[in-house]
Structure formats: C-alpha cells, structure tokens
Amino acid sequence: MSDGEEASPGADGPPPGGARVVAQGLRRDHGHGILALDGVDLTLEPGEFVALTGPSGSGKTTLLSLIGALDRPTSGSIAVDGVALHDHDFDRARYHQEVVGFVFQHHHLLTHLSARANVELPLVPTMHRRTARRARAAELLEEVDLGPRVGELAAHLSGGERQRVAVARALANEPRLLLADEPTGALDSAAAHRVLDLIADVRARRGTTVLVVTHDPLVAARADRVLHLHDGRLVDRPAELRAGSEQLSA
C-alpha cells in the first residue's frame, strides 16, 4: 500500500473477534425513586449472541446504554476486553469508533441523506479520504443487499430497508461488540427475519459479540442465551418465553 492510502477496516487479515464483556454489581439510580438497575452481574463471551428480554421499564435499554458507554452507572463496573468503561482515563470516543456498534429500533437515519451517506458518517473520524469512505459504504450496503439503492435518499426507503442501512452503518468500523435495541420492533415479520439473518450472518463471519434487547420471540429463538430482566434484576427466563422459542425453533 502506498503512503497516504487508507485501508477499509478489516481489509487485511481475518476480521476482529468478538469482545468479552463483564459487568459486576451494576446499579443505575435515576433518583426520585426510579431504580433502573439493581445489582446486575453479566458476562458476555466473545462471539456470543445473547437476547435480553423483560417488560417495559425493566431496565433493558439502561443496561444496553451502560455497556455502550452512553450512560454511567451509579455504582458497579463494566469492562470490555479488560478495559474499564468508566475510569477517568477511558477514551469514550475511541470505544465508539473501534469497539462498539449500535442498532436501534427506530433506525435514526438522516432521511435527507442517501443510504451511502448515512453509512459513511461513522467513518468520517477514522477514514479521511472521501473516496475510501464511499467505497466502504457501498461495500457494506452490498452486504445487506442494498447495493442498487446506495444513492437513494433514506426518506424513500421502506422501513425494512432503512433498518438494513442502520445495520450497515453499525458495522462500518468493524465493531467487536454489536448492541441492538429492539431492532425488529417496528418491522413486519418478513423484514424482521431479514434483519435477524443479517445480524446472525455478521456474528458467524466476523465473530462479533451480539447483545439484543427484544420483546420478539423470533430473536430469542436465534440467540445462544436468553436473559430476562425484571425490576432491574436478572431473573430466570420465563417458562412461556422458553416455550415460545422452542416452538419457533421446531
């Protein structure tokens, strides 16, 4: 490679493996009697696909936000690949650029930009040549079967297509940890299956660790493990969810 050239993340050698996440004694108190998490211990092994379930208000999104370093715990600790997320010298920007990717229920695309431009955005801090960013974005959109739609405005895409763009954007910097918050919640069953296929494919090919918050038994059926939060605590997985997952897997 000549001087000044930029490589796409993961272009040389095998893709990065998944991250290991260890959370201990996590507590998040929002005040005014609102205790979102109450002493959560959780370990995610590299390459594992874990579904996190529970009723609304049980703390699922709060836990995802803490692991994603979008929020800080009131007490307790989180380490990703041995790096403590909330130490004073923790580099949050680097963590978001190099380690973790996010997929949300509502894709949060900029609808006035094209699919390609939306996927390019997380590459701006790390890939300074626009031609390299455009090539990387086009490659990712091809991966999610949106190659012919790279120039289409996000406003003109279907809900399922927008969520696939969001998955491509989350993968732009080859994250070792993928966090998804209800990624199929706003989709019909066909689009939901497509997004789940993409996440499973990413995990299989890249070894990415995946944590998905969901109410959807389709997601639970795909996961290696299903965890259940209730009133801010991890509890045994409910029998009805186990039965639903087994039925879907049959």
UniProtKB/TrEMBL annotation:
Residue intervals of the ABC transporter domain: 21-247
MF terms (GO), sorted A to Z: ATP binding; ATP hydrolysis activity; transmembrane transporter activity
Annotated Gene3D superfamilies: P-loop containing nucleotide triphosphate hydrolases
Region (Disordered): 1-22
Keyword line: ATP-binding, Nucleotide-binding, Transport
InterPro entries for the chain: AAA+_ATPase, ABC_transporter-like_ATP-bd, ABC_transporter-like_CS, ABC_transpr_LolD-like, MacB-like_ATP-bd, P-loop_NTPase
Superkingdom of the organism of origin: Bacteria
GO cellular component: plasma membrane
Family: Belongs to the ABC transporter superfamily.
Protein name per UniProt: ABC transporter ATP-binding protein
Organism classification: Bacteria, Bacillati, Actinomycetota, Thermoleophilia, Solirubrobacterales
